[in-house]
Write a structure and sequence with these properties.
4 strands, alpha/beta, single chain, 4-stranded parallel β-sheet, 5 helices, Rossmann fold, about 45% helix
Length: about 130
């Protein structure tokens, strides 16, 4: 648990942890309390913490710098959806790299993965404060 919150859970892996923390700071200014969870390992996966956080906040975004499909974000989203289904007010949202080849250029690479701003906007929308 990197940050406690009550309105939405942001689950982030690797470099996305800093993105999630930055988005959480922006959300705080809008009156949205974001919990940030960094699973740190995918095996074993701390399913208990993920599910408890989802039950508490009832909204979840899973962030990964890899592609959203068939990867870590999908598996984490599935674990949360199965474990907290009846407690969720919205489907679990996955945010990952765009469905394009990842560019070699660092500025272009940064443009293909979630940013603080895109996570902030998605969270506001899930919390109906858009």
């Amino acid at each position: 648990m990197k940050r406690k919150g009550d309105d939405i859970t942001l689950v982030a892996t690797s470099s996305m942890v800093q993105v999630a923390l930055g988005a959480a700071s922006q959300l705080e200014k809008e009156g949205i309390s974001a919990e940030v969870v960094d699973p740190r390992t995918t095996w074993p996966l701390d399913e208990k913490t993920l599910i408890e956080s989802a039950r508490k906040t009832s909204r979840v975004i899973v962030l990964d710098e890899g592609y959203g499909r068939y990867g870590v974000a999908s598996e984490i989203a599935a674990v949360i959806a199965e474990g907290a289904f009846y407690d969720l007010d919205a489907p679990v949202k996955r945010m990952g790299a765009m469905h394009v080849p990842i560019p070699f250029s660092p500025p272009l690479e940064d443009a293909t993965v979630p940013t603080e701003q895109t996570v902030f906007e998605a969270a506001r929308q899930l919390c109906s404060k858009s």
